[in-house]
């Protein structure tokens, strides 16, 4: 079979698996949601994500590794992560040993099955209205998740970007850390090389996730924190 035809076939097989298994598993979770706890709902979602990671590796040749887990603090913290594809929103629940809560666009809640499950996972939704009102609302919700022991994941560039794009951070994640006093954990990866920002996986590959040393908002200005996160991310991306 020609390489191009095989790549197209693999892509469509992956799409069918992702949507089919996601719909089936979402249905199971939604039926169970009224009877199980918040932590049990998360474990169910993480179980599907681990199965997805295993299928990506075994059937499609997409391997992934995570480095630097020793940097994760014991206390709740804020992960500022590069956003390159859909991959990280699916795989992070499988890779991180602690419960994580994504900050996501409120529009996603209206997606059938996926959005309904997302709502039940009690993460942080963002209504992109007035910047001030959005910041106040996200700070309140994120503080609540941190109080429950979650690690809050924010994509500080605001949208998906190609892997080779320069790092351009918005101030929201750093301001949230300063407002809550939570430690910042910078994270980068190279998922965009395998699963583009716009599209589906292009074939086999190795996705590396790198977790950086924590940064404390104590005795640091938001500008200083932002510069430190930016410089670390930019330097590590050059290595991936």
From TrEMBL:
GO terms for biological process: phosphatidic acid biosynthetic process. Residues 77-192 form the Phospholipid/glycerol acyltransferase domain. GO terms for molecular function: 1-acylglycerol-3-phosphate O-acyltransferase activity. Keywords: Acyltransferase, Membrane, Plasmid, Transferase, Transmembrane, Transmembrane helix. The lineage of its organism: Bacteria, Pseudomonadati, Pseudomonadota, Betaproteobacteria, Burkholderiales. Pfam families: Acyltransferase (PF01553). SUPFAM superfamilies: Glycerol-3-phosphate (1)-acyltransferase. This is Phospholipid/glycerol acyltransferase. The keyword Transferase applies. The chain crosses the membrane at residues 12-33. Pathway: Lipid metabolism.
